[in-house]
Amino acid sequence: MLSDKEKKALLELLHEQVVPAIGCTEPMAVALCVARAAELLSAKVAPTGGRVVPDRIELSLSANILKNAMGVGIPGTGGMIGLPIAVAMGAIGGKSCLGLEVLRDCTADILSASKQYIKEEHIDIRLETADPDKLYIHAKVSAQGHEAEAIIKGSHTSFVETSHPQGAKSDECCECDELKCLTLRKVYDFATTMPLAVIDGEGQMKITTSVSEALVPKLSTGDIADVSITALQRSFSAPIRSVERAASAQNSLYTVTLSVPEGTEGLLAGMFADVTFHTDQVDNAIVIPSEAILTSGSTEYVYIVVSNTARYVEIVTGLTGTGVTEVLSGLNGGEALITVGQSYVKDGDPVRIVGGAA
Q1: Contact indicator for 194, 8 with CB cutoff of 8 Å
Q2: Beta carbons within 10 angstroms of residue 158's beta carbon
Q3: I need a surface site. Which of 50, 55, 101, 216 has the fewest CB within 10 A?
């Protein structure tokens, strides 16, 4: 039987270790470290703002990081593999605030600039032999006579302050007695019995969720959200109790807490809730299934059917709801939209309608 202290210790360990990432964690951790160093360099060279691309990047990596990152693909690069492209993109357009999603906002222009950066041989990667840690990344960048550096050690997102290299990391997991005494059976019990959410005490019921940086500015205390409890097959409205204005260091998401209205019956600790926030509203909008939308770079498009022929139509989208997206331009409404197999269709292909118009 797991004690409360053991449950808490395991939850803290999961929160530290399980974070969203784009692609393999090793090259993303390297890109994260480089992005942080580049941001520190930019603050020195251009204190009023703007990203400064380093003239030189020197990387020292532990053997495990070097081995695991050498031959893996980097998402969003068209199939490129290995550390150089991850390092270059981290330096030019990476955002350390996104954690292991550091390259999430990189555009086609950043990818093109990164390829050129690699050709110009600004990057030096070497094996770190002095530090025994299996996970060690040291990025040193320079430009215009200034230098900056960042170090990740111990876990993929644990930065060590360079001015205090022997200091404890603020996000380092404490190896407490509860973790040292765990058995495989206890870990199995935790995985199979621990609820997805914990409600603290009768009269204190609340729902806690996490949202992205794009959504959090649109939420305020007192706003009403729709809540659906799958286990009870029922829905209700709940007010926002609080909105954290600081992102989690582990996953770069913001915590939002909702109050469960008095008189809501049947809720138990551990039940899963779907939460829908209403941030914008448009009347008389043209909406289409989100799955029908295809993208090429920054261009969004769909295929419609005209006289039994597929026609390519570029669109501009607006708000997104549950499974649907607003179309601001490109469609007039009433067109027959291809929603299945559109990835295999080309403009002018003959098609046969098997469903109604959208």
Answers
A1: no
A2: 19
A3: 50
Q: Nearest-CA neighbor of 207 among 191, 192, 229?
A: 229
State the Cα–Cα distance between residues 338 and 291, nearest whole angstrom: 10
Query: Residues 6 or more apart from 308 whose CB is under 8 A from it?
Result: 350, 351, 352, 353
Backbone angles phi, psi at 155, to 5 degrees: -145, 165
| Among candidate residues 337, 288, 346, the one with its CA nearest the CA of residue 317 | 288
- Look up residue 267 and give its two tokens: 């809720």
Contacting residues for 301 by C-beta, under 8 A, at least 6 apart: 293, 294, 295, 312, 313, 314, 315, 330
DSSP state at residue 141: E
**Taking the CB of residue 201, how many other CB atoms lie within 10 A of it?**
7
How far apart are alpha carbons 164 and 4 in whole angstroms?
A: 35
8-65 pLDDT per residue, tens: 777 776 666 665 667 788 999 999 999 999 999 998 988 877 889 999 999 999 999 9
- DSSP class per residue in 142-182: EETTEEEEEEEESSTT-EE-TT-TTSPPTTPPP--HHHHT-
Q: How far apart are CA 202 and CA 307, in angstroms?
A: 62
Helix 83-93 to helix 108-119 angle (10° resolution) is: 120
Tokens 């559109």, residue located:
342
Strands 273-277 vs 286-289: parallel, antiparallel or unpaired? unpaired
Are 32 and 25 in contact, with CB atoms under 8 Å apart? no
First to last CA, the chain: 55
User: What is the per-residue pLDDT for 358?
Assistant: 47
pTM: 0.48
The predicted-structure confidence for 161-214, as pLDDT tens digits, reads as follows 543 333 333 343 334 555 566 677 777 777 776 654 444 444 557 888 888 887
What's the distance, CA 63 to chain centroid?
27
For 110-115, the CB contacts below 8 A with 24+ separation are 111/76, 111/77, 111/78, 113/88, 114/85, 114/88, 114/89, 115/85, 115/88
Give the SS3 label for residue 203: coil
